[in-house]
Amino acid sequence: MSIRLSADEQQVQPTTIDYPASDGEPMAETEQHILAMLYLIGALRHYFRHAADVYVIGNMFLYYIEGKPNARRAPDVMVIKGVGKQTRRIYKLWEEKVAPCAIFEVTSRQTKSDDIVGKSALYASLGVREYFLFDPLHDYLDRQLEGYRLADKVYLPIPPNEDGEIFSEELQLILQPDGAMLRLIDPKTGETLPGLEEALDRIAQEAERAQQAIQRAEHEAQRAEHEAQRAEQETQRAAAAEAEVARLRALLAERNPGHEG
């Protein structure tokens, strides 16, 4: 006996593809690498905190081909313009439709080859306009900081200045090697961007200064109020004294009608 399937039953259900948020691998090779990554993420997030369409994240899987969960990279730091700041587990390029404008890789012994060759070619093909490599221990790269800018789908080196600094056109920041850290400098102010902990400390200090200013203003207002009250009391006493003088003069005039004061 044959069984005839309905049209609905004949339809093949699509297979759900899993795009993992983690591969179980460690975040970085050494403490210096971790601290360099955390500074860059914290400083950039703080710098772009008022830009609603700039998203900064690090060590998150960037999936770049739909249906291929192995087509992924986890940049140490990436900056994406034109997307919201909402929390994400992963970044799917075909859904977001915006590639990062800048990517940082804190290179290490384990990642050097892929950072220089594999990732460079991939990021260029995805349209990542600037790509930076930083070697916190200065063990692997000829220069501790190397920068590349996309031109006709190919990365060209960004020449550093004599101090090894590189200017990022995408971020409008100066990148400055500083020991095992890659510092970010605002060229408008010449100040180094604070990391997350430094930013929190500055905010706390500013809040404390604001509170102290409020307390001083309240103290000055109270003192001004007391001064006004004393002035009012002096005015009242002066008016009372004048009234008393007038009363006494009137009384004296009544008792001595022919006397003029």
Give a structural overview.
This protein is an alpha+beta fold and 261 residues long. Helices cover 38% and strands 19% of the residues. The chain has five helices and twelve strands. The chain has helices spanning 7-10, 31-47, 93-96, 112-126, 196-255, and strands at residues 54-57, 62-63, 72-73, 77-81, 91-92, 102-106, 130-134, 145-151, 154-157, 166-168, 173-178, 181-185. The strands form three sheets. A six-stranded mixed sheet has the order 1-4-6-7-8-9, sandwiched between helices. The chain is elongated.
Features:
12 strands, six-stranded mixed sheet, 5 helices, elongated, 261 residues, three-stranded mixed sheet, single chain, alpha+beta
Short description:
This protein is of the alpha+beta class and 261 residues long. It is built from 5 helices and 12 strands.
Record the SSE blueprint.
Blueprint: H1 7-10, H2 31-47, E1 54-57, E2 62-63, E3 72-73, E4 77-81, E5 91-92, H3 93-96, E6 102-106, H4 112-126, E7 130-134, E8 145-151, E9 154-157, E10 166-168, E11 173-178, E12 181-185, H5 196-255
